[in-house]
Amino acid sequence: xxxxQRVDILAISGSLRHGSFSTGLVHSLAKHTAHFMRITFxxxxxxxxxxxxxDKAGRPEGVRRLNQAITRSDGxxxxxxxxxxxxxxxxxxxxxxxxxxxxRSVFRHKxxxxxxxxxxxxxxxxxxxxxxxxxxxxxxxxxxxxxxAVGAVHTKFLGEDFVDDKSLTLMLGGLRLLRTHITxxxxxxxxxxx
Length: 194
Ligand SMILES: Cc1cc2nc3c(=O)[nH]c(=O)nc-3n(C[C@H](O)[C@H](O)[C@H](O)COP(=O)(O)O)c2cc1C
What we know:
This protein is α/β, with parallel strands linked by helices. It has helices spanning 21-32, 52-57, 61-72, 89-98, 125-137, 165-184, and strands spanning 7-13, 37-42, 75-81, 111-117, 141-142, 149-150, 157-158, 161-162. The mean pLDDT is 95. The two termini are 18 Å apart. It contains 6 helices and 8 strands. It is 38% helix and 18% strand.
């Protein structure tokens, strides 16, 4: 890939809630990064609960739409809250669908950037570390970057805008690293997803 080229990032939110801080942060980051990447939000609310029988019989439209969007993207951004010290079920469920076939899925070698958030000071780090393990099993590449966990997220929005400069600088740095990874690393042909 040409390093001057703008990269296409698919963004998934771990919350389906209208007014979600996670989804709000995706949209805010899309505005702040528009000069160096295109972040497109992908709604996962149409994905049913995973069922192996359904998977075998033919994937639901929402799953095919997600898989296609991941395949077309240069990388994936996941912004998620923490539920009961773990990954929200809706997000884990979407990843379970997208993880098939095992280790040959659309996530294989896909560069991923993770951001967790919470109303609490802990910023959803426990969910983030569970997510890292899940993505590791899927052979995705979580791009090395300083940990991006936003605590007290409800104090960092002004209307729809994320306004905490310190967190914003950290996250923009992480997204630049994602871009650098995409534009500079070339996998050998035999390791590319296919
Ligand atoms: C079912 C449930 C469980 C939660 N568990 C945690 C938790 O373990 N740790 C935490 O920091 N916040 C927890 N929260 C609070 C969420 O982090 C907070 O509601 C957050 O704003 C949700 O993200 P959203 O705004 O993107 O929907 C929980 C919220 C819900 C609804």
